[in-house]
Write a structure and sequence with these properties.
The protein is α/β, with parallel strands linked by helices. It folds into three domains: 1-80, no CATH class; 83-120, no CATH class; 143-207, no CATH class. Helix content is 19%, strand content 16%. It contains five helices and six strands; from the N terminus they run E-H-E-H-H-H-E-E-E-H-E. The strands form two sheets. It has a four-stranded mixed beta sheet with strand order 5-4-3-6, covered by helices on one side. Strand 1 (17-21), helix 1 and strand 2 (49-53) form a beta-alpha-beta unit. The radius of gyration is 25 Å and the shape is extended. Mean pLDDT is 76; it is low at 172-186 and 201-208.
Length: 208
């Protein structure tokens, strides 16, 4: 099923049970096509079932995450997570050491079954924003612009290690991304200065 149009090899087949291991290795349309092969005689009395299993890794990660995690339905499309601790017969210490050779992202995926973690920069694409910027004179006078700060965990007052707080302006795409290395509270740092300098009644939010 890893080849394009490989699902056509199953045309005409009839199954009451289809099980797929590492379902992220196939495309969504191939997976959906296999439902057309689930059928039975009217008097057979056999349940028809589709079951799939996979690590959160592979080219089909996004559609599997959307279908089985976000679209999970307890009595129809149940998602049953599994972790290393669920296998009492495996040498967990040795296997974890092997997983650590894969890098932090893949390690988190395979060690903890984390379907949400992604490579850096994987959430936005530059082409989505092409031609979308406007001058502030074109914005309604009643529009309230707001800066948002993604704050790291709170540190103790004596901890002066520099930290980075990325910030962005909501409502005006021309506002630059501000990065400030500081150890002070956001109200006393570059965040508040940037908000005050934005004009037009900027608000400011800090998130963790």
């Amino acid at each position: 099923m890893q080849d394009a149009e490989a699902e056509q090899n199953f045309q005409g087949a009839e199954y009451q049970f289809i099980g797929i291991d590492e379902v992220t290795d196939i495309a969504e349309h191939q997976y959906r096509f296999l439902f057309s092969r689930l059928r039975r005689r009217k008097d057979a009395g056999l349940p028809v079932r589709m079951r799939a299993a996979s690590n959160p890794y592979g080219r089909g990660l996004e559609w599997c995450y959307r279908r089985f995690i976000l679209g999970a339905k307890p009595h129809d499309r149940a998602f049953i997570p599994a972790r290393l601790e669920d296998n009492p017969y495996l040498d967990a210490e040795q296997y974890e050491e092997s997983l650590r050779q894969l890098g932090s992202i893949t390690y988190q995926k395979l060690r903890y079954g984390d379907w949400s973690i992604r490579q850096d920069g994987g959430h936005f694409r530059e082409e989505w924003f092409e031609g979308q910027s406007v001058h502030d004179r074109e914005l309604p006078e009643s529009l309230r612009l707001c800066r948002y700060w993604d704050s790291p965990p709170v540190r103790h007052a004596e901890d002066r290690i520099p930290i980075t707080r990325p910030g962005s302006c909501l409502g005006d795409q021309r506002q630059p991304l501000v990065r400030d290395r500081c150890a002070s509270h956001p109200r006393d740092s570059a965040e508040s200065r940037a908000a005050r300098g934005g004009g037009r009644g900027f608000g400011s939010l800090v998130g963790g």
